[in-house]
Amino acid sequence: MKRSSILLSVVMVAAFVLAACATPATPVPTQVPPTPAPTATEAPMEASDIVETAIADGRFTTLVAALQAAELVDALKAEGPFTVFAPTDDAFAALPAGTLDSLLLPENKQALTDILLYHVVEGKVMAADVTGLKSATTLLGKDVTVKVDMGNVYINDAKVIITDIETSNGVIHVVDAVILPPTEEAASNTIVDIAVADGRFTTLVAAVTAADLVETLSGEGPFTVFAPTDDAFAALPEGTLDSLLLPENKQQLTDILLYHVVSGKVMAADVVTLPSATTVLGKDVTITVKDGKVFLNDTVEVIITDIEASNGVIHVIDAVLLPPQ
Question: Please, what CATH class does the domain formed by 50-175 belong to?
């Protein structure tokens, strides 16, 4: 029995020694999913130029056709930058019948070119900057007026309906009418010429003639005239106008007319910011805005604004202004 115990002990010791000397098993590595190869970064799309933007838009097919006919495509694809007041197809369609067809004829290429260049201003002028301008010089070399009225912006008489379409070489503002450059004939339209042609100012014209002020108001100026209509003169007390037109009352008539004239070209957007304006007579008229309407001396309402002349601007009023005594 003792011999068996000794033998068992020897076997256990040998097993322990063999286990200690054995080479440890190599651990099986945990499988890690492969790292995906980096994806190449897509290059940003290059912005389109003014012409490419107009073509892609779809609302300027007539404008694009006109640019092609005038051979201005390359000019408006150049580096620039340019600001384009772009008429829509509807704007071109609103021109008098036959006008567009005539402009697209080869013999009228220069006239078409002039019109198109009158829609382009050098530099990138965003909407926030446009509204701070009174005018802008176009690539034709002639100015367009910029007016803000009732929250809308107008370039001459064309309303800006969409702003800030940015391109690689400038910006497009969409207008609802074709902007026609002034003609030489229009450039000669003085304040007196416009008053005579209008038909609502026959009494004013007669008074200006009687006071020998025609030459003055046809001069270089510029002047701002608050022009009473015929109805405004007719509303004077009975006999007042006849009396004023008498030769012996010429000075009184002259004073009244000069009280309707301010030196300088003051557009409506500027008028409403003034508390008063000094007339050529040397006496002030007060300016107030009530419920969106503009009044001179509290009771005389300005009913039509910004009739531009070659030597100034006319604002139409509904009553005759009488200077303070």
Answer: mainly beta
Per-residue pLDDT tens for 102-157?
A: 999 999 999 999 999 999 999 999 999 988 888 999 999 999 999 988 889 999 98
pTM of the entire predicted model: 0.50
Is there a contact between 128 and 134 (Cβ–Cβ < 8 Å)? no
Strands laid side by side in the 284-290 sheet: 261-263, 223-228, 312-317, 300-309, 293-296, 284-290, 276-278
Burial class from Cβ neighbours inside 10 Å (0-12, 13-18, 19+) for residue 226 reads buried
Please write down the HEC assignment for all residues of 143-208: EEEEEEECCEEEECCEEEEEEEEEECCEEEEEECCCCCCCCHHHHCCCHHHHHHHHCCCHHHHHHH
**SS3 state of residue 16:** helix
Task: Give CATH for domain 184-317.
Answer: 2.30.180.10
CA dihedral 54, 56, 57, 61 (to 10 degrees): 60
